[in-house]
Design goal:
Elements (H helix, E strand, L loop, with lengths): L8 E2 L5 E2 L5 E3 L4 H11 L5 E6 H17 L3 E7 L8 H10 L5 E6 L1 H13 L4 E5 L11 E6 L2 E6 L5 E3 L2 H5 L3 H12 L1 H15 L5 H21 L4 H21 L8 H10 L12 H17 L3 H4 L10 H8 L3 H7 L10 H16 L4 H10 L13 H10 L9 H7 L3
Parallel strand pairs: 3-10, 4-5, 4-6, 6-7, 7-10
Antiparallel strand pairs: 1-2, 8-9
Helix pairs in contact: 3-4, 6-8, 6-11, 7-15, 8-9, 10-11, 11-16, 13-14
């Protein structure tokens, strides 16, 4: 059981954390309990957003339950090919909703991002019902959208409640479950990069949030083996890890604790920056595969050369113009000023040994690969039609997708 009562409020990090999600029910029968809980909370016109697959998985049952409770207002059933969280899906959703007081997302990550973004734009609450344990964004406060060809993370609305059933998640396609595993395992490098940036630039850091995301990662890591056997306890562990990570992003107000270089490479591909790489592969499966590659790369980093003083940074504009082409101006603006400009030589001297220890303590890539491969996760770039040359190109240039100080970025822009 995830406890919400000790997450919000003043923190020793100096921030007053906010958590919007006030109710989480992930026990058997959560769908049956949802209508009454919504009515108790004052909602009488619930509009459901789903796609054809998620409607069959849970939406049809939920519609019947809401109708029986006399609080069903209607549904948006997205059915176009390659549904993405983009302008088209948002337009379809916005044009269909009417006479409602609550949006209900029934689906996986894409459906949630569309719903939370529309809820934010229309200043209306929404409720989450995941049908696959595929992402950590169910309760987050940001949406990963693709607008104008750019993969952007936008402020959106966190759900006020979440209902989920491990039995439903267990029946989802295994590739969606693998995506959830990959998304969470990527937190190992995300957390390392966050601590590193804090130690050499003074970027804000919250130990409490760090510990939450690490806990989520370790819960999932411990339950991987049981997923392929359909172990409900393992699916509950995966769901808990995904929810905890999302709550941590709510508390933080952005995705810094949960997204770094391993996500940036995935976004780079999703923006179509590397020809031939499958852009429609699940986000989490790409993140997990990238995590395996970055663990090897990061654990071999020569920090004494990388952060040798004085630190000289290369001009990033030529890189961006080469790799991002028509999007270069937007990416340059996004990266101005460069996050690496905040590197403080005094902090580097003071904290270099701790930085080195952070990356040395990362898990072994081969051990994770064996666990992931055992449940069918994507572990090799060539599976996604990504050659070694394309992978190296992505490692070199994906660091500019977000203006965050990451080891991926340092390896590219520090002159050694």
């Amino acid at each position: 059981m995830i406890k919400l009562n000790n997450l919000a409020g003043p923190c020793s990090c100096g921030h007053n954390h906010e958590v919007i999600t006030a109710h989480i029910d992930t026990d058997k029968g959560a769908a049956e309990r949802m209508p009454e809980k919504l009515k108790e909370s004052g909602f009488s016109k619930v509009w459901m957003v789903c796609d054809t697959n998620t409607y069959a998985a849970a939406g049809e049952k939920i519609e019947a339950l809401l109708c029986k409770a006399e609080i069903f207002a209607g549904k948006t059933l997205l059915s176009h090919e390659h549904i993405m969280a983009d302008e088209y899906s948002v337009e379809l959703t916005e044009s269909s909703i009417n006479n409602y007081d609550l949006l209900l997302a029934v689906g996986s990550g894409t459906i949630h991002d569309i719903t939370r973004y529309v809820a934010f734009q229309h200043n209306t609450p929404f409720v989450s019902f995941p049908t696959a344990a595929s992402v950590d964004g169910f309760v987050s406060s940001v949406a990963a959208m693709e607008f104008g060809g750019l993969k952007v993370t936008l402020s959106s609305r966190s759900p006020i409640m979440l209902f989920a059933e491990p039995e439903v998640l267990k029946e989802a396609p295994m590739d969606l479950t693998c995506a959830g595993v990959g998304d969470i395992l990527g937190k190992y490098t995300s957390l390392a990069d966050w601590r590193m940036a804090h130690l050499i630039t003074g970027e804000h850091f919250c130990q409490r949030i760090y510990d939450l995301v690490l806990k989520a990662t370790e819960i999932v890591h411990a339950n991987i083996a049981g997923l392929s056997a359909g172990n409900l306890t393992a699916f509950q562990g995966l769901l808990d890890g995904l929810i905890i990570s999302g709550l941590a992003m709510q508390m933080m107000g952005h995705s810094r604790p949960a997204s770094s270089g391993e996500h940036h490479i995935s976004h780079f591909w999703e923006m179509g920056m590397v020809e031939g790489v499958d852009p429609n592969a699940l986000h989490g499966e790409k993140v997990g595969m990238n995590e395996l590659r970055l663990l090897k790369l990061y654990k071999s980093a020569d920090w004494d050369k990388l952060l040798a003083l004085p630190i000289k940074l290369r001009d990033i504009k030529p890189d961006i113009r080469l790799a991002y082409k028509d999007l270069a101006d937007e990416i340059i603006e996004l990266n101005t000023p460069d996050s690496a400009d905040a590197i403080d030589p005094e902090l580097v001297k003071k904290n270099l040994e701790e930085v080195k220890a952070i990356y040395a303590a990362l898990p072994d890539s081969d051990e994770l690969m064996e666990l992931m491969a055992g449940i069918g996760c994507t572990v090799a770039p060539e599976t996604l039609s990504c050659s070694e040359e394309a992978m190296q190109y992505s490692i070199d240039y994906a660091c500019y997708v977000r203006n965050k100080l990451t080891l991926l970025r340092l390896l590219r822009i520090v002159e050694r």
